[in-house]
Each structure stands twice: as C-alpha cells, then as structure tokens.
Write a structure and sequence with these properties.
By secondary structure, the protein is an alpha/beta fold. It has twelve helices and 18 strands. The protein folds into two domains: 203 residues, Medium-chain alcohol dehydrogenases, catalytic domain (Quinone Oxidoreductase, Chain A, domain 1); 139 residues, Rossmann fold (3-Layer(aba) Sandwich). The strands form three sheets. Strands 3, 5, 6, 9, 10, 17 and 18 form a seven-stranded mixed sheet that branches.
C-alpha cells in the first residue's frame, strides 16, 4: 500500500464556515459545514475566491428548486487539498477552477465526440451537512461560499497558478457562459455584427467574447447608462439605452437596415428574446444565455420563425468544455487579451454575501468576489 493511499485513509471529516440559505427569501447565514473525506472520484478543494452570481440569488429565492438548505456559491477557484481513490487528473496542490459540469466520458454525446453537451454530467456522491446532520444542497453541485468544499474531481480544471484567484474563478460560471454564448453557441466570427441585450457580467462577457472572435460591430443594449459604460470597456462599439429609444430600430439603423448576425439575450425575459428575434438579420442567430423563470412563456409569430431562417439557440454554460476552454482563456488573460480583472467590482468576505446580493440587484456591481 502506497504512502499516498495511507495519507488518504487517514483523512478525517472537517468542519468549515460556509454561507447557507435556509428558506425562501430569508437572509443567508454563516454556518459550520461538515466536509467528508473525498471518496472515489472526489476531491476536497480549499476555496480561494468565489464570485457572487445571480444563480446563487435564484437559489435563495427558490427559483431553482425547493431543496433547502442550500450551500451557496459556485463561481470559484482554489487549491486541491485532497483526492479520493481513482483520481488522476488533479493532485493536492493544484490550482483549479471549479466547473459545474463534470463530463462522464461514456454517454451517447461523449462517445460521439461532443463532451461539451454531455448528458450525464455529475457531482460528488457524498453530501456535505450542517453540524446537526442536516444534508445541504450545494449550489450547482459545488457550494463554494465556504472555506472548503467537496466536489467530483471532474469538476476541477487545472490552470496556471499565477492567475489571480478572484479573476480566474469567474470563468467557473458567468464569464464562461457569456464568452461561450458568443463564440461556442453563437459562432461569432471575423467581421460579424453582434447585439448583446443585458450588460451585466454575462452580457459583458459575451461582448468580450465577440471582440476576441473579431466581430466588427458589437452593440450593447441595456436600461442602465452605467452598465453601458462598462460594456464599452469590454469591447462594445455602440450602445443603446432601450429605455430611451427603440432598440430594434436602432440596431437596424446601425447595420444598414439589416439587423445583426448574432443577437444574444443575456437577461432571459420573453420580451427581450422577442427583441433579439426581431433585431437579427435574415438567416441570423439568436442565442439565449440569460436564465428564464420557470413560469415564463414565449410566443413568436410562427411564420416569422420559418420566414427569417437562421437559428434559435439556447446556450447552457456557454457550450463550454472546461478542460479545453478554461486553460485557453486563462492564457488569453495572462497575455492581456481578456480583461478578467475588469469583471471584479469588489472583493468581500463571507459575511458580506447578503449585501452583495442587494448590490447586484441594484446594478451597482458586475461581480462581488468573496476572498477567503
């Protein structure tokens, strides 16, 4: 038996601090969280930074499911502390970005060479709990508003350890979702025209992704002038405050009367999606990356769906493959070609998450990032 095996067997469950949502709409609290030893295929990660994402607020508000209490946080980076049996891709000490889609490698999608849409993504088998044994539901299978968390080892993507943890962690969700919506799902390419509706963290990431891909016209649409200013910093060539003017008409004006090649809904509202649908050129593409509420219903003129051609796509996690995309985007960040630091509005502590939710709702920040 190897020394490493003995080391793993001698691990003990740990108690750490974490941010928990106990009931719908209630303020979050800091609780003691029991982290089990990593089992086969699992890893314990010491969290260094975790972004405050809208999805965490959706969990707290009951917009995802009702499996309270939730251990919130999922947009994170950190150091692998320990791994369970059979784990070979990461070792203790590796700097990793956590992802919420560990691909299986065996489903029909993986076997036909499309692991980015794996149909059997998975999380850790074991459960983290409160001290009284109450089982926690980790947000997106991660639960990273905590000093440490337990995940499936496939949720750990090793990247350059010299990257800023606060910036790198944002690739774990929102920034990857936005960049991927433009490049992976929307197929934005050189010379294309793009409109992005909603200029929060995900929308600005879509703008940054469009710039990386070589889009010639990038139109940012929002109701907030401050957000439109932020969008310019990530590459928007034009801005539209849709509170003051008709966004569809203005987009057509800016594109020779045609509309854009790719229109991205980074909000997830039916009325915004309709604007995207109307603002695209013939044979253009609409990409939905904003998360709709389960009760929402979309209605479109069916003849227009046919008559305008093109594609209506949904982008789940930016159609990313973490093992491929995270290291590449970190390389671009290190080269100064992708401004991940620009998404970090402030760094905060675990006790500041509730106020960060309110700042996010008020549109005062792109991302508040918890640093441990």
């Amino acid at each position: 038996m190897s020394a490493d095996t003995n080391k793993q067997e001698n691990l003990m469950p740990q108690t750490v601090k974490g941010v928990v949502a106990k009931a719908v709409g209630e303020p979050v609290t800091i609780e003691n969280i029991v982290i089990p030893d990593p089992g086969p295929g699992e890893a314990v990660v010491e969290i260094q930074a975790c972004g405050v994402c809208h999805t965490d607020l959706h969990y707290r508000e009951g917009g995802i499911n009702d499996e309270f209490p939730f251990l919130l946080g999922h947009e994170a980076s950190g150091l692998v502390e320990s791994v369970g049996d059979g784990v070979t891709d990461v070792v203790p000490g590796d700097f990793v970005i956590l992802n919420w889609r560990a691909v299986c490698g065996q489903c029909r999608s993986c076997l036909r060479g499309k692991p980015q849409i794996c149909f059997a993504t998975h999380n850790a088998e074991q459960k983290m709990t409160l001290e009284d044994g109450t089982v926690l539901s980790p947000a997106l299978g991660i639960g990273a508003f905590a000093e440490k968390t337990l995940v499936a080892a496939g949720q750990c993507t090793k990247v350059d350890p010299s990257a800023s943890p606060a910036a790198a962690g944002l690739l774990g969700c929102g920034v990857m979702a936005g960049i991927g919506a433009a490049i992976n799902t929307g197929g934005v390419g050189r010379g294309d025209s793009v409109a992005v509706f909603g200029c929060g963290g995900v929308g600005d990431a879509a703008i940054a992704g469009s710039k990386l891909a070589g889009a010639s016209i990038i139109i940012a649409v929002d109701l907030d002038d401050q957000k439109l200013e932020w969008a310019k910093g990530f590459g928007a060539t034009h801005t539209i405050n849709s509170k003051n003017e008709d966004a569809v008409e203005k987009i057509r004006e800016l594109t020779g009367g045609n509309g854009v090649d790719v229109a991205i809904d980074a909000i997830g509202l039916p009325e915004v999606y309709k604007q995207c649908f109307e603002a695209r050129d013939l044979a253009g593409t609409v990409v939905l990356v904003g998360v709709p509420h389960p009760d929402m219903v979309l209605e479109l003129p069916f003849i227009e769906v046919f008559g305008r051609g093109g594609a209506l796509k949904s982008s789940w996690y930016g159609d990313c493959l973490p093992s491929r995309d995270f290291p590449m985007l970190i390389d671009l960040y290190q080269q100064g070609r992708l401004d991940l630091d620009g998404f970090v509005s402030e760094t905060i502590g675990l006790g500041d998450v509730e106020e960060a939710f309110h700042k996010m709702e008020r549109g005062e920040v792109l991302r508040s990032v918890v640093e441990m």
